[in-house]
Amino acid sequence: MRYVLDRAAYCDAGVIAENRLPARSYFIPYPDRAEAVPAARRRYESPLVRCLSGEWDFRFYPRPAELPDVLDTETVAWDRVAVPGCWQFQGYDRPFYVDERYQFPFDPPRIPEEGPVGPVFSLIGGEGGRPHVAHPVGEYNFAGVYRRTFDLDEREASVGHVISFLGVASCLDLYLNGRHVGYAEGSHNTAEFDIAPCQRAGTNELVAVVRRWCTGSYLECQDMFRNNGIFRDVLLREVTPSGIWDVGVRTRREERASRVRYHMAVDLRLVAESTVRVTLLGHGLERVAEAHADGCRATVDLGELDVLEWTAETPHLYDLILETPTECVRERVGFREARVDGRRFLVNGRPVKLHGVNHHDTSPTAGYAMTPAEIERDVLLCKSHNIDTIRTSHYPPDPYLLELCDELGVYVIDEADLETHGALVGKFPARQNRLTNDARWEARYLDRAERLVERDKLRTCVIMWSLGNEAGGGCNADAMYGLVRSRSSLPVHYEGAIHSLRRAYDVGSEMYSTVERVRSVGEGRSTTRRLNDRPYLLCEYAHAMGVGPGGIEDYWRQIYAFDSLMGGCVWEMADHAVLHPDGRYTYGGDHGEWEHDGNFCVDGILYPDRTPSTGARVVRHCYRPLRVRHLGGDFFMVHNATSFTSGEAFSLRFEWNDGGVAELSCDVAPLRQQSYLVRPTSSVARELGEGLRRDRSRRVTVTVRRRDTGEEVSREQIRLSEMAPLGDVLLARDAAFPEGCEVTGEGLAVAGVMAPAATPVLLCRAETDNDRYLSGGRPMERFYDCRREVLSVVEGEGTAVVTSRLVFPHHRFVCEDTYEAVAAGVLVTSRLHCERGRGDLPRFGVCYRLDASWDKVEYLGRNGESYQDMCEQTQVERVSCRVADMTEPNIRPQESGNRMDCQYVIVSNGEKNVQLTAVDRPFELAVKPYSDEELRGMRHREDEARSGTYVTVQAFQMGIGSGSCGPATRPEYRFDCRRDYELRYLVSWE
Ligand code: GAL
Fold it and tell me: Whose Cα sits closest to atom 2 in ligand 1?
C-alpha cells in the first residue's frame, strides 16, 4: 500500500497534535458485567480491546532524507522488531545517555530535519559555566517506520475503533490503509485516534512513522538514556453504540464528631445519549444509582457513603461498576483525601510522612519498555523496602504501575512529561528557563498537564500532581498550575517553582538540600520565605550513585521532628545501564555517544536487574514503620512512624547476644512513641566464644514482623555495652617473635601466610561516586600518590618499631608502627601524626596481602557493607563467607564492602588460619580480591579480576555522604587529618 508521508508536523512549532482525541481516563471497557468482574483479571482481557503489541515490521532510516515522499509498504525491506520496544535496544542507532543537555542544537523551536545535525550548542555543560559546543558526526534526526496489520470482520468493520498508543518517543505520524490518521507527540502520554474513517473489513494496514526528535523533544530533556520507539502497548478498542468515553470521580470527605463520611459523584462521558447505571460495591457496601446522559454527559450522585478509607497502609478499594446497554467498565477505586492544612500535608485528615523513592520506567534490556511483570516487581520491591511513596520521575508511568499502587498501597506523586533542563540559563542554580518563560510554548505545557491529569484522575494512589522536573519557573508553569487546580482538588507539586519568584505551589519542594537547610525550613526560618508557610518535600535527596547513599537517617531525624516536613524521595529506584547478551553492563560513553554523562545514570538503590544494593537496605531500614530506642535498664522506647497503623499490627522480638529472648506486643498509636519494659522471658546463655574469638560486646537485636503475614519489616540492633578490651593474659609480653614472622621496614610478614601489601598503610580510598562532587572536586585523588620513606627500624627483644614518612602532594604524615611479641601473637600499634596538610583523612588502615587460595573469611562485626553514615541497616554478628562476598558488584567498581565494628577477622585457606583481632576498640574491616590500586583502574563490573586476598584493618574510614549530587559527607563522619590517630590489633596464626 502507498502512503504520502507527512514531513511537516514533527518539526512544525505550531503543531502539537493532529486528529488526536481529547485526553481521558485510562480504563479497559468490557461488553457487560459478567466479563468485567472476574476475580483475577489479566491486563487487557476484554473482547472489546485488542492489544496490538507483538512483532511488527520495522524499517530504520538513518538518513531521514531517504524516507520517501510516498512510502510503498510492498517494496520496503522490512525487519522485525518487538512492540513495545526501543529501537536502540533492538539493533538500530545505539543507546545514548546524556543528563541535562539536549541531544540536538539548542535553537528552539527548530529541531534537526533532514540534514546532518550540525554543531550542537548547549547552554550548559561547558567548562567554567560557558556554553558547550560539540561536533557530532553522522548524527541525524533518525526515523523508524513501523507496520503491522490487523483484521476486522464485517461486524467489526461496521463499528467504530479507537487506537491508543500508551507511549511513543518522540512522536508519531499514524497512517491506516493508505491514509494519514493523525499526529501526536508527548512521549509518555497516551495518544488516541479515531480510526473509523479509515478502517475496513478484512486486513487493515497500520503504519507509524516515529522520529527521533520533534518539537516536543524540547520538553523532554530528562536525565536518562534518550530512547525512541513505540515503547508501551498499543490497544485497539472497539467503540460500542453507548460506549463509555470518559470517567471521573469526585469525592468529598466530611468528618463530624469523628465520624467520616464521603460523598461521591461520578462524571461520565458516553459516546452517545444513553442511560448509565453506576454501582459501588465492596466491604459490605452496595450502592446503585442511575442517570441518563443527555448530550453524552452524566453525573451520577452516589450520595453519602460510610466507607473504609484508602491509604498506602490500608489500601481498601471498592469496585466501581459503570454499565450502559452496550458496555461495562469496572474500576477499582478508593476513598482518600489529600490536602494541605497550613504547614501540614494530610491524608484522610492525618499528617503523613512520605517515605519515598523516584521511579523511572527503565529496563536494562529494553530501555523505556517494561513488562507488566517488571512493573509489578518494582512495586513489590517498594513494599518490601518500606517505601510508601513513588514520585514518577519524570513523566506519567505506564498506567499499570498506578493500578498496582492502588491495589498494594503506595502513594504516588504523578509527574507530567516535562523537563527543559537544557534551556536553563544563568549561574547555578539557574533561575531562568528559556522555554518555561516563553508564552509561545504555553500550549505545549498545558497539553502535558492536561494529559497527565485526565489519564490518571481515577487513580486513588495519586496524592499530588507534579508539573514536571527541572524546567525552571515561569509563566508556563503557572499556567499548568492553574489548569491542574481547575480540574483536581489534589495539591500540586513542582520543585522548579523554587527557581522562580513564586518559590512554591501548594507544597514547597527542593532537591538535595542539606540537613541544616531542611531543619531551618522545619523551624520556619528558611531564608526562602515561601517555604516557611506550607509543607515541604524533598522531591529528591540521598543521591544513590555507587556506594551509598550515606546520611539518610540524619534527614529523617529532622523529618520526624517537624510537622511541616513531609518526607522525601530518594534519588532513585534503579540504576540505568544497558545489559548486553554476554552479561556486560554499559553506561554513558560506552556506546560511542559524542557527548554523555558517564555513569551518572547508575544511581539507583537497586542494580539494573533489581537486585538490591546496600542502598536499598539502608533505605528499608530508615523507612521502617517502628523504631526502637534503648532508654536504659530494661526500658525501650518504640516510635510508631506510621500514620494509620497501630503498633499491634507488628510483633517485636528482642534477642540479646548473650542469651535471652523477649516478645513484645506494643499498642503504640500511629505517630506516637511509648516506652515499654522489656525483660527476657527465657534466658539460655549463648556461647560467646573463647579467647581471641570471644564476643566482647553486649547487644540486643529487635526484629519487627507484620503479624498478619509474618513478613519481616525491619531488624535493628542496639548496642548495650562497648567492646571490652582484650584480656591481659593474651597480651602478656614475650621475649621473641614467634617463628615464621618477620618485621622489616615494610611491616609484618608471616612466612607462607601474608605480607604487607604494596602500600601497607592506606590513607586513601578508591574514589566512590559520592566522593566526586558535582562541583568538580575530587578529594580522594589528593591521597592517591603516596611516597613512603622508611625513617628507622629499631629492634629490641620481641619488639620492633618502624618509623616511616608518608608524603602526598598536599600532605605529609609520620607513621610509627610498633610490633610486640605477646602471648597470643604479635601486637601491632600504628600511630599516625600529620606534619603537613589540612582537611579530611579518608581513612587510616593497614593492608595485608595473602594469595588467592586464602578465600574463607570469618569475622565478628557488622554483617554487611557499612560505613560511618550508613551502618544501622546491618547488625554485629559472626559471619562466615568467601572473599567474593566481601565487596559489592557496583556497575562502576569503586570502594565497597567495608564492615564496621569488627572485633576480629579470620582468613583461612582451608588448612591454616590467620586472625587479626581488635584490641581495645573495634576496627573497620575490608577484605577484597584485588588491591585498592587495581580497583582504582576499573571501569566496569567485568574489570574486577582477582589478584589475591587483601585484608585491611582500619581505625576508621570516613562516611559516604551523597556528594555525587548533593551534600558531601557530614562533619560528624569525617576525620580531621591534623589529629593523631592510633590503630591497635593483634595478629595470630595457626
Ligand atoms: C536531579 C534530576 C534528576 C537526576 C538527578 C541526578 O537534578 O532531577 O533527574 O538528574 O538530579 O541524578
Answer: 223
